[in-house]
Design a protein that fits this description.
Elements lengths: L4 E2 L15 E8 L2 E8 L8 E7 L6 E8 L10 E9 L5 E8 L7 E7 L7 E6 L9 E6 L2 E8 L3 E7 L6 E8 L10 E8 L2 E7 L10 E5 L10 E2 L6 H4 L1 E8 L2 E7 L11 E9 L2 E4 L4 E2 L7
Antiparallel strand pairs: 1-22, 2-3, 3-4, 4-5, 6-7, 7-8, 8-9, 10-11, 11-12, 12-13, 14-15, 15-16, 16-17, 18-19, 19-20, 20-21
Length: 297
């Protein structure tokens, strides 16, 4: 049945191939959602950032590679992860990625630019934001201003304001850490605003092992931020997934996560579920299948 999302099952694109939507970034453009994902057909080393689009989040049309392998940061022995795209007020698109070496010692963020959401993107280079380590990333945009969410294992989860061109850092807004382990923060961050409250989601630092992902809330991006709380049943390891994006859809939100299968990353299954957010709290329950039509009722 068209439009049905079966939780934990792979998406196939219009070519009949597994949609490479790992570590996804996603934005609504007109009647379509555009999505950028890590192409893991060659394993963990960089192949491409693939771009797809959909009208129902269930059926995906492959649009090509938004960013392909090359030299330098984009060489085939490099790590390029967590593709997130933002549309600037001038209409151009900026693709932001985690850039790293095979041993994850570089810990940088890279920027690329294009005239269309699907690209192709021109790679501009990478940096350590304000000199800090940067691994898993997320992005947020409000009133034309862009923000980078960046995991710095040695310093916490940081929120930066991007420059006006979205291709570099303007300033640091906040640094969040775990309350019971204040020397570290959370990774794989994503941020939304609902009813005037900011919700920041992240995953514990357990490598390839899954964990109970958390969220914190605040009245402003600078805080004060609440204690971190579960949004899926405790002990479920967020239904064996890691958060990538929380997406506003219709009258609700969708949790978009990954089940990383280290020995077969290209076939790592998605876990996409409706996420209930109200009265300053976020909650998620398991559903075998669902559709976005339910979220428009």
């Amino acid at each position: 049945m068209n439009g049905i999302i079966r939780t934990g099952e792979l998406f196939l694109d219009d070519r009949g191939r597994v949609a490479q939507l790992h570590g996804i970034g996603i934005q609504r453009v007109g009647e379509h959602w555009y999505a950028w994902g890590e192409d893991k057909t060659a394993g963990d080393r960089f192949t491409a950032i693939a771009c797809y689009r959909s009208t129902d989040l269930a059926s995906w049309e492959y649009l090509g590679d938004a960013l392909g392998a090359g030299t330098g940061d984009l060489a085939a022995d490099r790590i390029i992860e967590r593709p997130k795209a933002l549309r600037r007020p001038d209409g151009r698109w900026v693709l932001i990625v985690h850039v790293d070496s095979a041993d994850y010692s570089d810990a940088r963020v890279g920027y690329a630019i294009a005239d269309r959401p699907e690209g192709p993107y021109e790679y501009l280079g990478s940096e350590r934001p304000l000199g800090n380590l940067s691994r898993d990333i997320g992005v947020y945009q409000e009133d034309g201003r862009g923000y980078l969410l960046s995991e710095d294992r040695e310093g916490g989860l940081r929120i930066y304001r991007l420059r006006e061109d979205h291709c570099g850092i303007d300033r640091l807004i906040a640094t969040l850490r775990q309350h019971d382990r204040p020397e570290i923060g959370y990774e794989s961050p994503t941020l939304i605003r609902h009813d005037g409250v900011y919700f920041l989601f992240g995953s514990d630092l357990t490598g390839w092992d899954l964990n109970d992902n958390k969220y914190a809330t605040a009245p402003t991006l600078g805080g004060p931020w609440s204690t971190w709380r579960d949004f899926a049943p405790a002990g479920s390891r967020t239904f064996d997934s890691q958060v990538s994006v929380v997406l506003p859809v219709g009258h609700g939100h969708v949790y978009i996560g990954d089940r990383w299968t280290r020995e077969d990353l290209a076939s790592s299954a998605p876990v996409w579920l409706p996420l209930r957010i109200e009265n300053g709290r976020a909650e998620m329950a398991w559903r075998d299948e669902w559709s976005i039509e339910e979220m428009n009722e």
